[in-house]
Structure formats: C-alpha cells, structure tokens
Amino acid sequence: MPYRLSAFADEISTDIQVQMDHLLDNGVKFCAMRGANGKNVMEFEDFQVAIMKPQFINRGIRFSCIGSPIGKIKITDPLEPEVERLKKAIKLAKGFETKVIRVFSFYIPAGEEPGKHRTEVLQRMKTLADVAKAEGANLLVENEKGLYGDVADRHLEVLEHIAAPHVRGCFDFSNFVQCDEDPLAAWGKLKKHIVDIHVKDCRRADRKECPAGQGDGKVREILKDAFSSGWAGYLTLEPHLSASGQFQGFTGGALFKTAVDALKGVLAEVGAK
Predict the structure, then answer these.
(1) Which residue range(s) make up the domain with 175?
(2) What pTM did the predictor assign?
(3) Residue 197 clears pLDDT 70, i.e. is over it
(4) What DSSP string describes 29-84?
C-alpha cells in the first residue's frame, strides 16, 4: 500500500525556508502546521497565513492539519476560551487549505482518578465536536500522557461517545509507551478510528524518544498490520529527538533525516511503498 508522509516541521527549525528545504529533501510532501517563525500556529495573524501558505504551496507542500494545542488545559479550567480558540483554529485551517484540527482531551489534576471527570470530559469534547461540525471542520483527537484519553480505553471512549465521522483519532506510539500501555494492544482497540499516526518511538527503560523501530512502540508490528489491512492515513513525523516538552518538541535538520530514514526503513520492511 502507498503511504503519505507529513511532519511537524517546527521540529526542524523555526525558519519556514529551512522547514521546507528539509521536508522536500526527505520526500515529505505534507506539513502538520504547529508553528513557524518562533510562534505557535494559534498566534498567527491573517497576514502571516497569507504570506506563508503560498510559499509552501508553491514548493509542492500541502497541509495535513493544524497542530493546535486545544484541549491541553486542565479539565477544571473554563471551557469558553477553548471554544473561541477552536473557532480561530478553524479559521486557520481554512487559511492553510485543510479541514483538520488536532485537539486533546483535557488534563486530569495530578493524583485524581480520571473517571471522576468522565462526564465533564465527554461533554466538553462533544461541544468541541459540535462547533467543528457547524464550521465544516474535522477534529483529530490525540492521546498524550496526563490527558483523560491518554490510555486506549479512555481514548476509545471519547471517540465512541462523539461517534461522528468528522471526529477521528490520532495514534502516537511513544505516548502509549509513556503511559505503560502496550501500543500493539492499543492499536487493536483504536485502529478503526485512526486516520493519522504520529511517528515517535520511545524506549520503555528510560522514557527517551528514539527513531522509529528502535524503541518499544511496536512500530513494525503496527505499521505491518495497518498497511496489510488497507489503512491509508497520514504518517506524521514528530520525532522529539533533541528535546521533548509538554507543548512542543525539537529534532533539528540532521536528526530529522535520521527520523525519516528510520521510518522509511521500517516501511520497506513491512512492504509499504
């Protein structure tokens, strides 16, 4: 089966010219727009979008999604500002000619049982989904440690509660390792909902990110199953090989090539082309 490569290009550089150079040098034709020129995508003004978009488009790079941080707030924080941010993200998505916005399922206060906040999380996620539907946008819900949906069962619960074709899932190998989950078992539960796989592997022993196939994310097994079953979403590189943070990671140009080469090696092994 063919595959489509995307990347969070701000992991390469803040400079969009450098971003584009490295994307194209490595055969990556899609960008998950999370940041550029030292700004998070949510800080972009209209004139900046108007300047940046044609530069990417003219070099043959399209946008797979807006990598927003929406939902990366505590479940106890007010929702209204997040709804307004989603409306801005939808406007940004239209500006970059994509319909997809990545979102998250809210942080649970440390030490508290996630189930305590189940009703509130599900209501909030449904609200975000309704706003997106009204504007003709699609949401991509990501798993990450500390969120309500950080483990497969709760991630699945969020997606099945919304139960709408414009809301799908993102699968991150490393984040499941960080949560002490078996990524392959998580994939089995979630795969029918997944349209974007974030390519970031992780070693369980030291919780350090590493190139695809070199950690405990079961990247080979999952990609083999995905492509043998006809999966046709995006493979979005988010390597975090130099630095890993709550809101952004960094890899740099040289290690980005290492990350892409490692992924392509795994894809060749599993028969994806």
Answers:
(1) 4-269
(2) 0.94
(3) yes
(4) -EEEE-EETTEEGGG--HHHHHHHHHHHHHTT-EEEEE---TT-SBTTS-SHHHHH
